[in-house]
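subagent[fold] <- orchestrator: predict structure for attached chain, return tokens only, no commentary.
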Amino acid sequence: MEPAADSAVLRRAFSCFPSGVVAICSRVDDEPVGMAASAFTTVSLDPPLVSLCVQNTSTTWPKLRGVAEVGVSVFASEQSALCRQLAGPAHLRFAGIEPLHTEAGAVFVPGAAASLSCTLYNEIPAGDHTLVLLRINELHADPGVEPLVFHASGFRTLVSRPSEARAGDGPSGT
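subagent[fold] -> orchestrator:
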């Protein structure tokens, strides 16, 4: 065992857990604003909630926090370059992208495995991050589109093992 106070050791341990990768986007002053996030997970069916963790040093989240609606796009497996772009310099994040959007301002990445139109539900301080809870208002999902996965500091794709699990089966946290 190694001390958890060593951030390099902690990052290495966190990298052992795969996560989905999402874009969090909205229109701010009639321009798309967004970021990529890998600390994203489902939370609740009733009410329908998802969460993401945002670094307290983020300059993008303060712009998105006050919008009426934010879009969450679950990146598809072939969208790793787009994910890197949305994690890059703010002024280049939407270069060459024709995002989709709702009338309320949520912005979505085209071709995503799922698109969730959300409103801010709660924010909880959590060390050097803020845990953001988003309430899902509307959504579109295509289970046939493979998601992009972040694991061991790199992007991965899933390999299906149909004999071991069926859609909808799996851990429920109960």
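orchestrator: received. Logging for downstream: The chain has one domain: 19-148. The longest strand covers residues 114-126.
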